[in-house]
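Exercise 7.
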Amino acid sequence: MPLLAILLIVQIAGPPRESEDVYRTVLADARCSGRGTPVSRGSIPVIHRELSVEPSFVTPLRGVLPTSLVDALSRARDDRPILDDSTAQRLNVITIEPTDVEALTKATDYWAAFFNKFPSASAQVRLSPVAFDGEAREALVYCEYSVSPIGGEGFIVHLRQTSGTWTALAWHRIWIS
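Solution. The predicted structure, written as tokens, is:
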């Protein structure tokens, strides 16, 4: 019985396998990873450890996307879960702590300091928790990348799982700079 308890704790502590697969699909696209942008210097996204989405980003999607998914993303934004080290390693990303972001904001040139601290970084990336429909066949996730003060985009991605593979159905741009 103690082994069962340990397995349950591990499953609850980390994101479900479906979330990890959704993140992998979204991060494979340059629209979320920043790979290949003119300012990008490396190939590994540096992701904020705390997963979140701004409430104002979700509201415009009401009436455009299924209400149940939009509601689920609205609820998920309040959770603010943490992207754990083992998931980050499997996704081949680096995570950045809020304290590191705060320290970088004190630098004269935030982006020079960021790329100096993370020389293999493709971009600074934010993700939201993944919101699933009731059957875990469709999902929404917010992702953004930034590489400079005027180099970045934010999207809410609508995905569907078919035969065990997640595919992006639509990328809804929320902002661009």
